[in-house]
Amino acid sequence: MNVDVAFTPPAAAPADRTCIVIDVLRATSVIAVLMHRGIRRIYPTATVEQARQLRAKIASDGTDVFLLGEEGGLPPEGFDAGNSPTALEQLPITAQLAVQATTNGTPALLACDGAPLVLAAAPLNAAAVIQLTLKAGHDVLIVCAGLRGAFAEDDTIAAGLFVERLVLAGAHPSDAASEALLRYESARDHLADALRDTEHGRITVELGFDADIELCATPDRFTRVAVLRHHNGHPALEPHNSV
Questions:
Q1: Residue 16, phi then psi, degrees to nearest 5
Q2: Per-residue pLDDT tens for 207-224?
Q3: Strand, helix or coil for residue 225
Q4: Which among 170, 174, 171, 143 has a CA at the least distance from the CA of 158?
Q5: What is the predicted pLDDT for the residue at 50?
Q6: Using CA atoms, how far apart are residues 211 and 33, in angstroms rounded to an integer?
Q7: 46 and 107 in contact (C-beta within 8 Å)?
Q8: Interval 23-76: pLDDT, tens
Q9: Is the dihedral of CA 172, 177, 179, 182 positive or negative?
Q10: What is the pLDDT of residue 242?
Q11: Which domains does the chain have, with CATH numbers?
Q12: Sequence-distant (≥ 6) Cβ neighbours of residue 149 within 8 angstroms
């Protein structure tokens, strides 16, 4: 098994590799929380307006649909929730279906649509993601969501955590994967502080979500992984239990 890292989402989904998609601050961390809370399906969308439209379509028959995401890091007008995993751990949620739109994370997931296996990953569910990845047996592309279409240090550090575990399981790292691993190794013992010290981390703190960084830096808290599939013609994340 080979493991590579894409520092920004690919122009086209790889046809022969598992894609581990990471937006550690905060979209894929939010997805891990929602899967743990029992959400049955999350529809990722590329824009806030697409999310509103899809929510209206699904809810047209009376189905309860939870609308969440961010624009500039904050909840868009009319959304049920923003992009804070700590808030979403506590918020009452009765819906089984959700529609999500974020600046970086949901577009990154959609960029990988078409790969043989696409997993929404975060340190929060790292062990479960690694277990499912190894079971699938494909070569691996770890996809960093990035920040505004460019390299993001926070996602690269988190990618290195996954590289380390795959290498320990026998995978062969590319040069990019080795670079991510080095960045993670320097941050491993103070991961939350390392994430805070990135551009995205500083923005997150300035917006008032410092507690989110602590949570997002916590490894192996959850055992459920969101797998990108399709439902009624739309890409949708559905849970896979690793244990």
A1: -135, 15
A2: 999 999 999 999 999 999
A3: strand
A4: 143
A5: 98
A6: 14
A7: yes
A8: 999 999 999 999 999 999 999 999 999 999 999 999 999 999 999 999 999 999
A9: negative
A10: 45
A11: 2-241 (3.90.1560.10)
A12: 8
Instruction: Please name the residue that has the structure tokens 């300035």.
Output: 206
Cα torsion angle, 26, 144, 180, 229, sign? positive
Which amino acid makes up residue 132?
L
How far is it, in rounded angstroms, from Cα 134 to Cα 169? Answer: 8
**Cα dihedral across residues 216, 40, 138, 233: positive or negative:** negative
Q: Specify whether the CB–CB gap between 157 and 58 falls below 8 A.
A: no
- Tens of pLDDT, residue by residue over 140-179, are 999 999 999 999 999 999 999 999 999 999 999 999 999 9
pTM exceeds 0.90: yes
Report the alpha-carbon distance of residue 142 to residue 117 in Å, rounded: 12
Q: How many Cα atoms occupy the beta-carbon half-sphere of 134 within 13 Å?
A: 17
Q: Are 201 and 213 in contact (CB under 8 A)?
A: yes
* Both tokens assigned to 34: 């929602």
